[in-house]
Amino acid sequence: METEPLGDGPSGNPLDINTVVVGGGQAGLAASYFLSRAGVGHVIFDKRAALGGAWQDRWDAFVLNTPNLALNMPGLPYSGTEPDAFMARDDVVDYFREYARRIDAPVRTGTDVTRVSASDGSFNVETSDGTWRARNVVLATGGFQMPKIPPVASDLPRDIVQLHTDQYRNPAQLPGGAVLVVGTGQSGVQIAEELLAAGRQVHLAVSTCPEAPRRYRGRDTLYWVLQTGLHGPEYGVNALRVQQLPSPAARFGCNPLLSGSDGGHDIRLRELGRSGMRLHGRLEAADDGELVFTDDLADRLATVESGFSQRMQRALDAYIAAAGIDAPPAEVRATDDWLPEEPARLDLASENISSVLWATGYRLDLNFVDLPVLDQWSYPRHERGVTEHPGLFVVGLPWLTGHYSALIGGVGVDAEYVAACVAGR
Q: What is the pTM (predicted TM-score) of this model?
């Protein structure tokens, strides 16, 4: 439950507590659930005024990309009547607020952690509401921390309205005219679809996030992704574990292009192009009112369309076979070679492009951690969430231990292990 602010301890000394959890989103709440079960005294600091995590930053028409059946926070599995439906933004926020209430989570909202430093075998945790001393700290700030905007943004004319997806709410927020959406991750393509449906001319700068079928072999694709990540190792299938990533940078790779809107559907870029969206290569530069795109759209679309079959599909099929699951065969996707004819340079004025929406993702921001535990991507060096510094732990980051680590239905696995390590201290 959310708590009223507390003062310092006796004589103004910093307050003492066993464990501080930084972040009250799904990862922090999952950690709190297991810490409470282990009898570990703790407090959760969340800088937001109200619970609900980064889901509160999503646009008005946002719905989860994962089906309701994957709403499986520790101690509160989904028990509704629509397991294959997709929850809307406000309902997701309410879900987490209700979860915090049920587990009696000791959350202090409106409290920003500004510095975590070592002090005589424990930690000083400096916040916007005083300093605490803790034996352990669990970082649960999630992967949606700081909007990432490329340098080319500074080269656009000043009259162009620029928003990151973190700031976008609905089509009426943008001025009249065409819109350029830069990036084809899940948020980018879903917002592009919304803008197109609202009658806007949409230009889409294509990245290489893989397309995937909404349903695969009789179930939602993300059902199989969770099952393969969580239970695949029991059958020798480890493809969705962090050890199988080609490089540490791959932890920040795109999720498959799926949408939960309108009951859930596939997203196919060529189909969007045929429906009137104008597809381009990667936005490379802005030069005196002209946009410059890479001239490789055909190759990009081929990469997008082959990504699922090259890696994820093989993993899912391997798990289904190894676990002996009776699932229908995969549907064969028809070849689609449609390709738009778009120039590599585009004049903003002549195309009436008045706004640019940056769907370029986020980067981690753990600069408040005043300890030498972060790598070149600001990702904590760790082993199963246990960092190199004794007493400092992390949960909820993308690919912490597997593909499931930042998903609602999987975050509890890492949280349970980390809470046990905390209790063991």
A: 0.94
